[in-house]
Amino acid sequence: MEYTQENKEKTAGESGFNITLRDVVELIIANWYWFAISVIVCVSAAYLYTRTLVPVYQRQAVMLVKTGGKTANSDISAMLELQGGVTGSGVENEMYILRSYQLVREVVNRLHLDVSYEEDGFFRNTSLFAESPVEVTFFDPYHSFVSMNVTPLDVKNYTISNLVVGGKKLSTLQTEAGRMIVNLKPENLSTYIGKPVLVKRMSPEAATAIYKGGISTSLAGKGTTMVQITSVGNNVSRADAILSALINVYNETIIEDKNRIAVNTAKFIDERIAVIGKELGDVEEELTDFKQRNRIIGTEGNG
User: Fold this and answer.
1) Each residue's pLDDT tens digit, 270-293
2) Distance between CA atoms of residues 157 and 168, nearest Å
3) Cβ neighbours of 184 (radius 10 Å)
C-alpha cells in the first residue's frame, strides 16, 4: 500500500485534534507523581499562608445619645470645635467625641493599653489581654520602646530573659526600662507554664493613635440618635474592654459636663443676685438722701 503525502497530512490532522478522555487519563497516570507533588505544594502553601495571617476581630456596641439641652453644646464639644475638629451639631458632635483623642487617651490610661502581651508562636504571635498569664506595671515615665520575654515557671516564679526572679508573687524590679512590677495571674497560668510571653511597652501617645484608628462610629438607624460603636483589633477581650471603657468615659464626661454647667449656672445666679442686691441697696440709700436733702416727708393716703 502506498503511503502518500495526503495520507500523512490526514493522519497528522487527526492525531493533532482528536484527543480522547482515555488519552488524558493515561497522561495523568503516567505523570501521577507530578500531580501529587503539585497538590501537596499548593495545599501546604495555603496552610502556611493562613497560619501566618493575624486574625482581626470586630466588636460592636450600640448606645443612645441624648442631644437635647445643654449636652449638645457641652464644653468638650466647644473645645473640639475651637480646634477645628467639630463643625456639626447634635448627634454628629457626640459621634466625633466618642472617637476623639481625649476620650481614647483616657481609655488607654485606664486599661494600660501602652503595655501589650503576646504568646510566642511558630508561625505568628497570638495577642493576649484578659487571658494573659502575666501583668507588668511600669512606674517610671516612658522613655523608649520596651520589649521582653516573661516566662512563668509556677505560681510564684518567672524569668525575664535570663534573669530569674523568685520568692514573692509581686516583685519590684529596677531595670533599664525603669521600675516595674510583674504580677502572675494564677487563673490563667495553667496553659502558660514554661511558655514565654512577649511584653511590649510603647508610649501612651503611640498607643492612643493605634487604638483610635480601630474605633469608628455610625448611626444605628436613619433618623435615630442610636450610635453604633465599632472596635476592630486582633484580640476579642481587648476590643470588648475598649468598647466598655469608651462608653463609661463618655458617660462620665457628660455627667461632669452637666455638673460643671450646673455649678457655673448657680455661681452666675448667686453673683447676679449679689450685684442686684447691692444695686438696690445703693438706690435705696440715694432715695433716702434725696428725701432728706429736699425735706420730703412720706405720707400715707387714707381710704
Assistant:
1) 777 877 877 777 677 777 776 677
2) 8
3) 21
